[in-house]
Amino acid sequence: MSHRPLTDNRLVVASHNPGKVREIADLVTGRGIDVVSAGDLGLPEPEETGTTFRANAELKAHAAAQASGLPALADDSGLAVDALNGDPGIYSARWAGPEKDFNEAMRKVEDAMAAKGADAGRRAHFVCVLCLAWPDGEAEVFEGKVFGTLVWPPRGDKGFGYDPMFVPDGYDVTFGEMDQSHKHTISHRARAFALLVEACLDGD
After folding, report:
1. Which of 42, 38, 41 is CA-nearest to residue 24?
2. Which residue segment(s) compose the domain that 177 sits in?
3. What is the spatial distance between Cα 129 and Cα 31, in angstroms, rounded to a whole number?
4. Looking at the DSSP assignment, which residues form a beta bridge with residue 133?
5. In the chain, N or C: fewer CB atoms in 10 Å?
């Protein structure tokens, strides 16, 4: 399958989330790409009206590419908890409320799981869909997942979002405790980004 290469040396990260922008900037380090966030450019945040991670990633990437005239990379990601039928899912950020309080969001997840009972289990996975869009309307989409178990109370002050309550399979530390350079090699975002790199940055 043929993919469109990213030949520009400037890329808009279609996010106003500093943690997410930082992670993506770290992932493109050393590739000669100047990363600028939608927030830095003063671009508005489009309303995320999609019902899937892919739809929201495409919506955000196309909006930023059109507004900036540059290629734009959007990420839609979230935590899917087995016992909660995939919630909070695409609404992961909304569970943190208008103040983006992820301590409160993690508490809501834990309370919702407790209501299901111990037999419901604590399995969960992070999903990341990346959409790379160009101002001409063309786009490439990539998806990554990482599976693990939720712990309580949260542990660690690294990472962001739900990281302090998520222990990836094969590890005994949370994403919130893990060295972030290592997290960037195994996370859902890293896995989606590896597919993007192979398809659009390293050539076919």
Report:
1. 38
2. 10-201
3. 21
4. 72, 139
5. N
Catalytic site positions: 76
Sheet containing 34-37: order of strands: 34-37, 10-13, 72-81, 123-133, 139-150, 166-168
In a domain, residue 5? The reply is no
Distance CA 175, CA 187 (A): 9
Residue 69 maps to a domain: yes
Could you give the CA distance from residue 34 to residue 9 in angstroms, rounded to a whole number?
A: 6
- Residue 108 falls inside a structural domain: yes
Is the bond into 5 cis (omega within 30 degrees of 0)? no
| CATH code, 73 | 3.90.950.10
Give the total number of structural domains in the chain.
1
Along the chain (204 residues), what's the average pLDDT of each consecutive run of 10 residues?
A: 85 86 80 88 90 96 96 95 97 94 97 94 97 96 98 94 97 96 91 91 64
Please, where are the H alpha helices in the chain? 18-27, 53-68, 102-116, 180-186, 188-196
Residue 186 included in any domain: yes
Structure tokens at 67: 């507004």
- Distant-in-sequence, close-in-space partners of 17: CB < 8 Å, separation ≥ 6: 93, 160
